[in-house]
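Standup notes, structure subgroup. Blocker cleared on the manganese (II) ion input:
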Amino acid sequence: MARVILMVIDSFGIGHAPDADKFGDVGANTFANLSKALEKEKGRPIHLPNFAKLGLLSAGEQASGVRVNHEKVENVKGAYGYAAELSTGKDTPSGHWEMAGVPVLFDWGYFDKKENSFPLDLINKINEATGCLGMLGNCHASGTVIIEQLGEKHIKTGLPICYTSADSVFQVAAHEEHFGLDNLYRYCEIVQKIVGPMNIGRVIARPFVGDDAKSFTRTGNRRDYSILPPAPTVLDNIQKAGGTVISVGKIADIFAHQGISENTKATGIDALTDATLDHINTAKDNTIIFTNLVNFDQDFGHRRDPVGYGLALEAFDKRITEIKAAMKDDDILFFTADHGCDPTWPGSDHTREYVPVLAYHHHIGQVNLAERTTFADLGQTIADIFNVTKLSYGTSFLDELVFK
Ligand SMILES: O=P(O)(O)O[C@H]1O[C@H](CO)[C@@H](O)[C@H]1O
Ligand SMILES: [Mn+2]
Ligand SMILES: [Mn+2]
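Run returned:
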C-alpha cells in the first residue's frame, strides 16, 4: 500500500482565478510576478529545475497564459495541472479543507472595518472572560508592522495586541517574556471559544521577542486555533480505514487536530523539509505525510518580498532532489498551494488564484492534468489512492497517474 507525501507551498498561486474579480485580484500571479521581480533584481531568470521537471512552467502557462522565463526543460516527468477554488474565501483553512475534499461553501465571519474592527460588545466579552483590562490594535494590520508600532506600548501596559486582516482571523500578538507564551495561548483559547460561534475561522497566537521596536521579531511559536472542518475530510477517512495521517508544520492546527495521527512541528522551510524527510524515511505503508510550508506565505507573500520569495523557492527546489531520492517505489508525491499571496500586489493580503497541482512517482511519464475546477480533485484522488470512502466533492485523477 502506497504512501502519499503532500506538500503545500503556502500561498504559491500561479495566476488569477476565474472569480478573481470578486476579490479585486484580476492580474495577480504570485509565481509569474515574483519571478519577474527576481529576474529584474538578479539579472537572470528564476532557476527551479526540479519544479520545471515536474511541469510547473506548463501548469503556470495554462493557468495564466504567461510562461515564466526559465531555461529550457527537457522531458517533463510528472503530472501537472492548475486548480480553481470553490470555497467562498481565499484563506488558509478554506484552501486546505477544500484540498482535503471539503470546500467551505458557507460565509466566514469577517471583521470588515479597517479601524475599530472589533465591535465593543465583543471587546467587553473578551476582556471579561480573559481578565485583561483592554487590548491594543483593534484594526486591520500587517503582523510585523503592528508589533513595531505597538510592541513597546504592549510591554508598558501589559495589554495584548489584537488585529485582523481580509481573512476570517482574530490575531493576537504578545511578547513571549513580558506577556508570557502560556498566557498568550490561554488568551487565544478563550477568544476562540467566543469568536468561533461567529464563524471566525481562526484565532492566531503571534508571539514575539526583542527589546524595542527595532528589534522585535516573531518567533516560531505561532499557534492557530481553528474551528472544526464542517464535514469529514480525506484525513478522517484515511484514519477511519486504519491509515496514518502525519502532520508536519501547521496542518494539525488547520484541521483543529481532527483526522491527525501524529504531529511534528518545525520552524522554517528547511526544518519543515527535514521533518518531512525524516517521516519519508521512517513512515510505514498506508500513511499520508502532509506538510505545510507556511514561510512562503508568512515571510515573503504577506511581507510583499518577491525576491525573497523567489530565492526561497530556488532553495526549496534543490531539496526536491532529496525528497525524490527518499521516496519508495510506490510512493506518490504532490505539491500544491492553498491560495495566492502575490508579493507584488497592493496591500498585504492573500490573492485569489489558481494553485498548481503537481504529482510525481518514480514510474510516471509526462501527464497534463489541465484545469481542475476544485482543489477537492486532489482530496478525491488521495481517497482513491488509499481506497477509502469517497468525498462529496472532487473528481479523482488517479487513473491519469499511470505507473509505467
Ligand atoms: O500579517 P500577518 O500577521 O503575518 O498575518 C497574516 O497571516 C494571516 C494568516 O495567513 C493572514 O490573515 C494575514 O493577516
Ligand atoms: Mn495559507
Ligand atoms: Mn497567509
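Discussed briefly. Residues 10-11, 92, 297, 338-339 surround manganese (II) ion (ligand 2) (CB under 6 Å).
Next: hand off to the docking folks.
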